[in-house]
Amino acid sequence: MKKIEEIINKTAQDKMDFNIGLQLLLDEYSFDEVFKTLQFYIFNSIPNKTDYNSNTYKRAINTIPLKPMYTPIVILKNYPTKVAFNKLASLPENENKKVIGSLLWIFKITDTERRSRECKNRCGHFWHELD
Ligand SMILES: [Zn+2]
Q: What distance in angstroms lies between residue 90's CA and the mean position of ligand 1's atoms?
């Protein structure tokens, strides 16, 4: 597993503090790399591959620990998933931390739900074998 993937998965699995994981991602990797990796993980963790929406995804968006009037949150709440991600990818640089923080949070929630749903009995997802 690449270091960036390890940071994301440890954060999602509460093996690394959320804010520490977020800061490491922001400090050590480009916005594009972190964004693309998180988008791939989030889309994979949502069972509905038609419009990439689910109750868990909605709950994730509604619990992002950022002020609800921040641009990335407004976009995530008001557009279909793929459209929202396209818009997030092209926001100005001063939104980068809020965008990555939002996506890391979403993945933490959707991945946690998937682990309780599909992964109870040794799922074979190599990224769930972190210890
Ligand atoms: Zn799994």
A: 31
